[in-house]
Amino acid sequence: MISPFKGNFRVTSPRGYRTIGNISEYHGGIDMVGLDDTTVLAVAEGTVYTLYEKDGFGYYVRQQLSDGRRIYYGHMKSFLITGGSSVTPGTPLGIMGATGKVTGPHLHLELRPAGYSSDSLDISGYTGIPNVEGVYVSETEIGGAVNKNLYSYDDTVEALIKCGIITLENMVNWELMLSGRAELKTEFVRTVFDRCCAKITQLESKK
To answer: Which domains does the chain show, CATH number per domain?
Structure first.
């Protein structure tokens, strides 16, 4: 799981349809509250821009990923980065707040497709953050032990990410396949083998 908060956080409103004041609306992201730390951290690598929207996200960060997709970090109190900066997962972006159209302090985290569409994508699938109300911890407990990995709860996936064999974009796919919760796809396996061979060749050439 890649979390925008250190330690414990609460998911207060999942992505999906919800009713507020007898009005049903589609909520495109996940609302979260940092319980141990209110510093908002980047969940991906990309270029960030600081923006303001009075009747929407308030002070927010828009992050552009390499494939054009965009991540929005909404309702911040203040920024810790400057617009146009390149960041990596874990980079502090700002402080959780209650700016814009909100009922209380929280972070709205949302993933959108490349371009200008306001349609939302599955941010839970991208980060591994449960799309269910509840309290969670960034260092996820797996089998009774606390996972100290930076990116993934699966040690093999974590190692492959650190070696540059797989990317954060398809991390969740690998977690699901290696745990037996999803079919192991041939094209994914072939890609990993090809990248491993390329990495071995690179290392051999440096001897």
So the answer is: 8-137 (2.70.70.10), 150-205 (no CATH)
Q: Please tell me the predicted confidence (pLDDT) of residue 162.
A: 85
What is the number of alpha carbons within 13 Å of residue 184 lying toward its C-beta? 7
Assess whether pLDDT exceeds 70 at residue 47: yes
Cβ 38 vs Cβ 190: under 8 Å: no
> What is the reported pLDDT for 35?
85
- What is the 3-state secondary structure of 80-141? CCCCCEEECCCCEEEEEECCCCCCCCEEEEEEECCCCCCCCECHHHHHCCCCCCEEEECCCE
Distances from the Cα of 183 to the Cα of 47, 89, 107, 121, angstroms: 33, 28, 34, 22
* Helices 171-178 and 155-162, axial angle in degrees (round to 10): 150
